[in-house]
Design goal:
The chain is an alpha+beta fold and 209 residues long. The protein has 2 helices and 7 strands, in the order H-H-E-E-E-E-E-E-E.
């Protein structure tokens, strides 16, 4: 291999690195794994010790905290989705774990490719009065639901960015609603269009085996 070929290969490797880091937010797999591990440890301590934890909110609860179960972090499940606006927004009524319906406003659709399939998730906006009014809500289920993950679906926290045309969906941060740990909470179920056919093997697993 001559010097010219070596230079070309080096340039190609450099460009490939740039493209990779542009899709992963500039994080190496090692840095990202450490970040997720730190966040999961913080949540574990909250669940174990904080008064706001679902395990501590009801002192009469027989459910005791042990640990939270997760898939290993995988950057393949951190995807950048196209944010497709909804022109005529409607109110969406979701069933909940305690039978009390909850209303949300359509916000946008997140369209992305994962496992070689095109997927779409409906992002909703909180309508309730209070500090969470206007924030985004995303609940989804997938092929792991009821098997490896909580049967009633999982949630993703999202930030509203005015004028944004894309949004990051980091399924490594998918988490269980509180009703996965205790029947004392009311948790909205995912809308029908948010039941994915693919298996999202990322984020939190079932609390109980």
């Amino acid at each position: 291999m001559n010097s010219k070929q070596i230079i070309i290969l080096a340039v190609m490797a450099f460009l490939a690195t740039i493209v990779y880091y542009s899709f992963t937010g500039g994080e190496s797999p090692e840095e990202y794994t450490k970040l997720i591990a730190r966040e999961r440890e913080e949540k574990k301590q909250f669940m174990k010790n904080d008064e706001g934890s679902p395990f501590n909110a009801n002192k009469d609860s027989v459910t005791k905290f042990t640990t939270l179960n997760y898939y290993a972090p995988d950057l393949a499940y951190k995807v950048v989705a196209n944010l497709v606006p909804i022109e005529s927004k409607k109110i969406v009524v979701l069933a909940t774990s305690d039978g009390v319906e909850k209303k949300y406003l359509e916000f946008a659709r997140a369209e992305f490719t994962l496992d070689g399939k095109k997927n779409s998730l409906l992002i909703l906006e909180v309508m309730d009065a209070g500090p969470y009014r206007g924030t985004l809500f995303l609940a989804f289920a997938d092929a792991t639901s009821g098997e490896e993950t909580y049967g009633a679906g999982r949630y993703l926290d999202l930030k509203k960015v005015p004028g944004a045309t894309s949004i990051t969906l980091d399924f490594n941060k998918a988490y269980n609603p509180y009703c996965a740990y205790s029947d004392n909470f009311s948790c909205p179920f995912p809308p029908r269009e948010n039941i994915l056919t693919i298996a999202v093997k990322a984020g939190e697993k079932k609390y109980h085996d």
